[in-house]
């Protein structure tokens, strides 16, 4: 049974107020009801009310030390008011030193995706999010695209058979890793009860926007790119500690911020670090397994989290920097940033500049969504998506319309907003993409 649209009633009211029959048809072909054109306005009204209610709640019940009030917020690129309001609400709680919204930012759970906040002696469980350690890894091979172009479709089909995509999947091949022998890490994080399930899930990719990409660079060499996180381990850890901290799950809710030296804070940090190690191990396993399918040797690799908290020094202060959907980009530090499927990705490097310093040495983690998942499925057809990919010579295995390239911004436009903070080293053109199939919903991603 199809769920009712939460914005339909208000959208119909706005449509009537504009003198338009809500049930009249607009657009090409069968079109759509006219009220659908007012959904975005209804959604923005709703989000603004939620953000204002959260701000009032924070002001009434939570006090922030005067020296942390009105901390500077650096915003890259244009954003919806609701995204900026959500970020300001986050920055009204805890020992906040500064904040950043990257150009690919949009609303997230409690803190915007693309949001970066620096805390003094505190860490935000909500800011790190549910998919702890979600990130990207790219590896360059000494294999040339021209040598495998004719068998690329069969290669990506083999990848989809060998790598487990989808919800709650166990890896068909047991992935060994010394992380599972680190008993102290599992005890300190209080996640020992999840260890055996984590063993089975290591090397699984998940669904939604998680992927394995095969790409080629300017010199014609093949790159493997992957995007996913810590799977059920991270989601279970985040859920457990969010509840323990009295936090809430939702969009416009106050973030759960804990002291680094509290019992809860120490255990959460241990759980976050464990999940981060697990995410790194999973991405490394998948890249190596795909390399075995393609052949060749790795000549360069770039690997980074974009949902994590790091201990960093900024302006002489020792801080926790929480990045939610943002890539670390210190001077000389490389990062892999994907576009949408069918769009070019990049290997970039941080540079030193006043703008980079104001960004807390952070940059985008992707192109950023223009339309939510439900809206993308309503707006676009499979034929449109397939045509987009065919024109770019991309073979796709899996995926649904919610990941259509048309639902995303264009990566060059987003990167242009961060000019002077990063430089592009390689542009990577995808030729094959594997993702989870249609209808998959993944509770273990943020």
Report on the architecture of this protein.
- There is one protein chain.
- With 446 residues, this protein is an alpha+beta fold.
- It is 33% helix and 24% strand.
- It is built from 14 helices and 19 strands.
- It has helices spanning 8-17, 39-61, 81-90, 125-128, 145-148, 152-162, 183-188, 195-201, 231-244, 263-294, 354-358, 373-379, 382-391, 411-416; strands spanning 25-26, 32-33, 73-75, 96-106, 113-119, 122-124, 135-144, 211-216, 221-228, 257-259, 298-305, 307-314, 317-324, 327-328, 334-337, 345-350, 362-363, 395-397, 422-434.
- Strands 7, 8, 9, 11, 15, 16, 18 and 19 form an eight-stranded mixed beta sheet that branches.
- β12 (307-314) and β13 form a beta hairpin.
- α1 (8-17) packs across α2 (39-61), α2 (39-61) packs parallel to α3 and α6 (152-162) crosses α10.
- The radius of gyration is 22 Å and the shape is globular.
- The relative contact order is 0.16.
């Amino acid at each position: 049974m199809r769920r009712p649209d939460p914005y339909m009633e208000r959208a119909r009211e706005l449509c009537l107020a504009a003198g338009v029959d809500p049930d009249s048809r607009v657009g090409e072909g069968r079109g759509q009801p006219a009220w659908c054109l007012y959904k975005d306005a209804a959604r923005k009204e709703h989000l603004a009310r939620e953000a204002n209610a959260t701000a009032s709640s924070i002001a009434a019940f939570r006090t922030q030390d005067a020296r942390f009030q009105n901390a500077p917020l650096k915003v890259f690129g244009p954003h919806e008011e609701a995204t900026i309001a959500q970020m300001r609400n986050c920055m009204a709680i805890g020992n906040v030193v500064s904040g950043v919204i990257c150009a690919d930012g949009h609303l997230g759970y409690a803190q915007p995706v693309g949001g970066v906040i620096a805390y003094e002696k505190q860490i935000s469980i909500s800011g790190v999010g549910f998919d702890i350690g979600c990130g990207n890894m790219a590896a360059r091979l000494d294999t040339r695209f021209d040598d495998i172009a004719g068998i690329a479709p069969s290669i990506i089909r083999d990848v989809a058979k060998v790598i487990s995509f989808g919800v709650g999947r166990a890896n068909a091949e047991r992935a060994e890793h010394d992380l599972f022998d680190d008993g102290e890490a599992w005890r300190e994080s209080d996640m020992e009860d999840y260890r055996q399930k984590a063993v089975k899930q290591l090397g699984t990719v998940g669904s939604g926007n998680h992927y394995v990409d095969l790409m080629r660079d300017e010199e014609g060499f093949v790159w493997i790119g992957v995007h996913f996180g810590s799977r059920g381990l991270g989601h279970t850890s985040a859920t457990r500690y969010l509840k323990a901290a009295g936090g809430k799950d939702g969009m416009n809710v106050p973030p759960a911020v804990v002291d680094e030296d509290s019992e809860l804070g120490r255990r959460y940090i241990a759980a976050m670090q464990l999940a981060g190690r697990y995410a790194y191990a999973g991405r490394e396993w998948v890249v190596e397994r795909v390399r075995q399918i393609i052949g060749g040797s790795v000549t360069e690799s770039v690997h980074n989290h974009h949902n994590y908290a790091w201990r960093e020094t900024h302006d002489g202060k020792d801080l926790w920097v929480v990045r939610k959907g943002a890539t670390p980009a210190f001077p000389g530090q490389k990062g892999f940033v994907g576009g949408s499927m069918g769009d070019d990705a990049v290997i970039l490097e941080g540079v030193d500049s006043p703008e980079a310093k104001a960004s807390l040495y952070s940059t985008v983690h992707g192109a950023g969504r223009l339309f939510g998942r439900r809206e993308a499925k309503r707006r676009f057809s499979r034929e449109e998506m397939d045509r987009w990919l065919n024109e770019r010579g991309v073979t796709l295995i899996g995926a649904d319309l919610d990941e259509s390239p048309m639902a995303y911004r264009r990566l060059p436009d987003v990167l242009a907003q961060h000019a002077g903070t990063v430089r592009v080293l390689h542009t990577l053109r995808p030729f094959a993409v594997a993702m989870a199939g249609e209808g998959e919903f993944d509770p273990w991603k943020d």
